[in-house]
Write a structure and sequence with these properties.
This protein is an all-alpha fold and 439 residues long. The protein has 16 helices and no strands. The chain has three domains: 3-122 and 297-336, no CATH class; 135-285, no CATH class; 364-438, no CATH class. Helix 1 (26-39) crosses helix 5, helix 4 packs parallel to helix 10 (245-262) and helix 9 runs parallel beside helix 11 (274-285). It is flat and about 140 Å long.
């Protein structure tokens, strides 16, 4: 890329956590991008996509584009799916830590705005959503109203002995509605039982129903016990049962959706990636209006404008850089300081003339302090008294305790002392008797 079209900015990636290159809020820019793509405004859609790309939100930008395709376009422009898929997988494999480097990469610029043009010029079609499951739906009488399957043996090859028994009926109903798609409510029934499984897993199994281990090279061993892999195997098996030219084309598109689903898969992301499963079910059942696999991605007129945008896309980047002031981050920092609410200082000083914000009763505070100090001194006095009583008792007991010697040497010393005491007593008693005689 020529240096004329490169973005040169001193700000690091940490600055762009909540704000964009031009000082806008990230959430507002994302909402403006989605709105203009849905309205078909190509100029503003490219402007906001460039703003996000310059700010280093490349991965998030591809997530937004994929989500918009699945929820707002999906099967009405099925030919766009491989284009988004290959670019999405390629950007996910990119391991550059500094995502600001990609804004000066010509490949990423062209492919981002190519997909933006396709999304903006494509017709729009809302994807079906999972219905809300109520507590009454777990009652067997209510469940029977949604049951149409009769042959339970048809799903035996997909289930195992180690799978929980509660998932047998929903799996059987999803399979029969996919296999015999002549019913007008086949897609609605499939989505009902899929929603039933998701709510059952969330409410009764803490968000994870542990099924039998199913080998899959695209996921880790921790995620191989999920019930969703039973549904994926059924989808591929139904396509292989009736091999036609249309089913072969369907299989290619469903493989793209499967690879997107298994990319960095975790069972906590099941609800986030559920739009991929819903699109697969709509492709297999194919309700009215049917999917047209022979249409062009966009018409000739829109294709010419797309090529013009891609040939002049570098000027869009330079215009954004010229229109942003050099010291924008300093200006924004000053604005945040001015708009920030001032902290109220509470002055409760006794000697201040100003009235305190909180009324203070000094008499009560002093009385409480005196009570606490008096209680503490009373406890200390009681502890001292108890210590003195213990010392006095121990000293008196020592006088009356007779220590019995254990060794022989100690025994001999003890005998000597007793002899001296006896001699002393007999001597004095004798002298006392003499004195008593003369009286």
């Amino acid at each position: 890329m020529h240096t004329q079209f490169q973005i040169r900015d001193k700000r690091s990636a940490q600055y762009f956590k909540k704000t964009t290159f031009g000082g806008y809020k990230k959430t507002k820019v994302i909402n403006a991008l989605k709105k203009n793509i849905l309205l078909g405004n190509i100029e503003k859609a490219n402007l906001w996509a460039t703003e996000l790309h310059i700010s280093g939100y490349t991965h998030q930008l591809f997530d937004i584009m994929l989500d918009l395709y699945l929820t707002e376009i999906n099967t009405i422009n099925i030919q766009l799916l491989p284009i988004i898929y290959y670019d999405y997988i390629k950007i996910q494999k990119n391991k550059t830590k500094d995502l600001l480097y990609l804004r000066n990469n010509q490949y990423s610029r062209n492919h981002i705005h190519n997909i933006i043009a396709y999304l903006t010029f494509s017709p729009k079609n809302k994807l079906h959503k999972l219905p809300k499951i109520k507590p009454e739906d777990f009652n067997i009488q209510v469940m029977k109203k949604h049951m149409i399957a009769s042959d339970r043996n048809s799903v035996n090859k997909y289930l195992s002995v180690y799978d929980p028994k509660e998932i047998i009926i929903p799996i059987l109903e999803i399979y029969t509605n996919m296999k015999y798609a002549n019913n007008a409510k086949s897609l609605d029934n499939c989505l009902y039982w899929l929603a039933w499984l998701c709510t059952y897993e969330k409410k009764f199994h803490k968000g994870y129903v542990k099924c039998n281990f199913r080998i899959n090279s695209r996921i880790t061993e921790k995620e191989a016990n999920d019930f969703i892999w039973i549904i994926w195997t059924m989808c591929f098996d139904i396509l292989e049962q009736n091999i036609t030219s249309e089913t072969k084309i369907k299989k290619k598109y469903i493989k793209c959706l499967f690879n997107l689903y298994t990319n960095k898969y975790k069972h906590t992301q099941k609800t986030k990636k559920m739009s991929l499963v819903i699109m697969v079910l709509t492709m297999i059942i194919d309700p009215h209006p049917h999917i047209n696999y022979s249409n062009h991605v966009i018409n000739a007129k829109n294709n010419v404008s797309r090529l013009k945008i891609l040939s002049n896309i570098n000027y869009q980047y330079t215009d954004i850089q010229k229109n942003t002031p050099e010291h924008l981050y300093e200006i924004i920092a000053e604005q945040h300081k001015q708009l920030a609410p001032k902290k109220k200082t509470i002055s409760n000083s006794i000697f201040s003339n100003n009235k305190p914000a909180i009324a203070v009763d000094l008499d009560k505070i002093i009385a409480n302090i005196d009570k606490r100090n008096g209680h503490r001194s009373y406890i200390k006095e009681q502890e001292k008294k108890s210590k003195l009583e213990k010392e006095y008792k121990q000293s008196t007991l020592k006088k009356h305790v007779i220590h019995i010697p254990q060794n022989k040497s100690d025994q001999s010393i003890f005998d000597r002392k007793n002899r001296k005491k006896q001699q002393y007593q007999t001597k004095h008693i004798h002298n006392f008797n003499k004195v008593f005689k003369y009286m």
